[in-house]
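Newbie here. four chains, one complex. Structure please?
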Amino acid sequence: MSAPGTDTGEPRAMRADAVRNRAKIVEAARAAFSERGLETQMEDVAKRANVGVGTVYRHFPTKDALVQALIVDKMERVAEEARRALEEESDPWEAFSRVLWLGAEHQLRDRALAQVVATQPQSTWRNAAEKETELGSRMAELLTRAQKAGAVRPDVRPDDIPMVMCGLGAVVQNERSWERYMRLVLDGFRADASEPLPD
Amino acid sequence: MSAPGTDTGEPRAMRADAVRNRAKIVEAARAAFSERGLETQMEDVAKRANVGVGTVYRHFPTKDALVQALIVDKMERVAEEARRALEEESDPWEAFSRVLWLGAEHQLRDRALAQVVATQPQSTWRNAAEKETELGSRMAELLTRAQKAGAVRPDVRPDDIPMVMCGLGAVVQNERSWERYMRLVLDGFRADASEPLPD
DNA sequence: GACTATACGGAATCTGGATTCCGCTTGTCA
DNA sequence: TGACAAGCGGAATCCAGATTCCGTATAGTC
């Protein structure tokens, strides 16, 4: 969540109070959007941060930009978890499924994240999969390993991951038993299916 | 989709033109909401129906009421399909999964339906499950039969159905490969799981 | 301590829709 | 066919929020 001036970039460094405020805003936004989701209003964020709306807007040009920043940040954390699983874990299935469970928990704790993932999984995933964050390829690797180990059916594709997470986004927001959803899907990944998946 | 006056109810029958207009509105709304989803504007509906906005509002007090009416109508059709499957089909698994596939297709063809199911599965399902429409109990019966036949794992519960349909609602709107989602989930239903589902 | 570029606060403004209102039409019924 | 209630059209109104603006405050600099 670096900001112009926070780091040692070229643009003249931000004023100390601006840096402080930006941090307060980000933190307030994180809390507000996690709890209330996208319906959170810019004024809510401002109030939580003890700042005027104008200040929020100086740091983030639009509500969407603010949300995007929060999402990117979250996805980076997930990517980090994926990286860790990739090196630490021994059992391929454990590693693969653990990251998915972690992702689910992120959605559970962050209403806005769930809404965005359920609504625009494509862009969310791409952003996280392409840039520095290698989420896409890491998950693909975890999947491949699990498949090679025979833990996941061979016709599952990397694309299926954002797909089930998208469904989860909707489930998490409405159903008490999102864990059953996860279990069901993960079991679907393992099932020695009667027929291979379509497409 | 009966309306006061359309049937032989007590309230003084609607004027002929009103009946005609209501039909045009419902049809226009069905088309518009199916295509564009909830973002459809009341004016859009009015235009499609060759009617003024005011007329739309005389028939449906709010946008939400209009949407609700369309959804209820859809759910009744699904309930009807469930009823048919319940009596016609021989193979329990076929019957059960067929209705789910049909439900998926409804969501695929009706953007608003998918949005509502993904967003408020509880109320949508309840409405359809309680009232005249016995969707809930019919699906439960189809599920039970499939379980007795050994086609579906015993720890799947009736509640899991709206849950996966909720996830599907999100998937259908964003992912090209919703069929893979369905396959995966249905396979999850059949899987002889390593562990029983939580809860 | 004075000066100025940055930041700040938050009232005022703008917008996209939903919903309302009311003068004008048109069925319906005697 | 005339009276009038039921309906109609669509401009005007409302509203919730996002976004802008500008007078004021303050960190950074000499």
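Moderator note: The first helix of chain B runs from residue 16 to 36. The mean pLDDT of chain B is 92. Thread marked as resolved.
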